[in-house]
Amino acid sequence: VHIQLNTATKLFSRASTSEASPNRRVSPLDMATPGTLPHLNRQSVHRALKMARLMRCTIPEWSRFDRKHYFYADMPAGYQITQNERPIAKSGKFGFYVFDEHLEPYWKE
After folding, report:
1. Can you give the residue range of the structural domain that contains 4?
2. What is the count of structural domains for the chain?
3. CB of 70 closer than 8 Å to CB of 32
4. pLDDT tens track for 91-102
5. What is the pLDDT, as a whole number, of residue 70?
6. pTM (2 decimals)?
7. Phi/psi of residue 95, each to 5°?
8. Which of 25, 50, 104, 106 is the most interior residue, by most CB within 10 Å?
9. Which position has the higher pLDDT, 65 or 77?
10. Are residues 49 and 60 in contact, defined by beta-carbon separation less than 8 angstroms?
11. What is the SS3 assignment for 68-101?
12. Three-class secondary structure of residue 105 per DSSP
């Protein structure tokens, strides 16, 4: 599951997430400036864990971020930070009501 969190800064940089014209909310990390290091947005991690608990996910003792290598013109670093091997949460359930052919609601996970 991918979710968008309402935070003031990006997940791995201190650049603002507020609305602006293109290329206005960019930090040296976003531009892949050599020597820059990611800065993890702690609020995002707390919110992701809150969502994981709401979805009754399994939350491991530790997780890690991985580099997924891409070579695209719009990705100057040549990689995307992801959680491929050890995600922050997994195996959750999301429930919602759906309607059958007689418009009777029933719960589905």
Report:
1. 1-109
2. 1
3. no
4. 988 878 888 777
5. 82
6. 0.73
7. -105, 150
8. 25
9. 65
10. no
11. EECCCCCCCCCEEEECCCCCCCECCCCCEEEECC
12. strand
